[in-house]
Amino acid sequence: MAAARAPAERITALLAGLTLAAGALLGGEAIAAPGEQDIAARLAAMRAMPAAADEKAAAEQRRELDNSWRYFGDNKSAALPVLRRQLAAELRQPKPNQLVLLDVGYFLRAQGEPSDKALSTQALLAINTESPLITAQAPQLFRFVHAAAQDKDARLLPLIDRAFLRKNVNVLIPQHGYVLDETSVCIYLYGPFGSAAESHLRGLLGDAAVNKRALEVLMWVGSPDSVAAVAPLLNDSDPDVFARAATFMLRAGGPEGRAALEQIDPRKFEGKQREFAFEMYSQARAMNFESLATQLFEAPQTPSSTANADSRKPRRMDEATTRAALAGIYDNYGRYQNVQPADLVQSQMPKQELMNELLRIRERSYLRVSGEALTELDLTNTLINTLRYRDK
Hints:
It is built from 22 helices and two strands. The protein is mostly helical. A two-stranded antiparallel ribbon has the order 1-2. A hairpin with a 4-residue loop joins strand 1 (about 170-175) and strand 2. Helix 5 (about 75-90) crosses helix 7 (about 115-125) and helix 15 runs parallel beside helix 17 (about 270-285).
């Protein structure tokens, strides 16, 4: 029992002892209020934390860090000025403490003022993704990057490459009892960047270390703009690369992707890759707006909608009704509540305007992190790709 209590007792003792040194830790500034002394002590304890040796230690460390988060949140008016000063001072250090960058930077992003975003982003960009301290707290880094990605700052893309695309990071979403796998983590981080992420990922397709996952993410954030870059991978002898490239063409490539698949000769492959190539070739030749719209109507209903359950035929919605339906989906962060997807693709709304609205919905959907959200993101992408075939 004494051994089990030791970590907590050490932290408590450290907090008490470091309170006395709070003034020095704040760059020599005098601290009068007891609340500020506690804040300084918690920051000192954060700096003193070693890299977690295993998952159990990382979880214990996260609990301690979360306790500090709650304390900062409960004492925000006193905490924010101290945290700003401390983070700015940390960034001036030759080797800034990684946990301070991570946790204080994210706290300022999540609970600070709008003016704190710049300092928070500076801290995020200064994080060393290879640090054991950061590796042990990868889910917290995911949350920080996901929040910052809404600003579409392209400087974050190389950091996402290093920390997530090139690693295998799973993230538990406790409120949903759901675990994001490695690809889903990347989808949520690259997704908010839209066309900038698509262009960035295209540039990685020549890197064999990451091209498979880059293709998986492009299935969700890509467009016909990437068909020319993906097409050479349809000749790849690696069955996994070929399968992902072909699937991208079907899911995100529109008529241009279909045309690229129709150019392959399945006979040049062997074994299962040959069988899969014939299957993809056959699917591509059968793709048109009518077949895709029928598949939408016959697909299982989405998690938040009961509209697919009825047996009526799709109706051609007028423009005003379509705009109202799209506004409702947008306001509900991509939830298709009581909206029949097949009705949307048959809408009288001009095709390009409809696609633009669906792209706005897709972007907003990335704010919802759950399995349900991914299912409806997939539906939005299916709608967009189906519309690419309309009037062709």
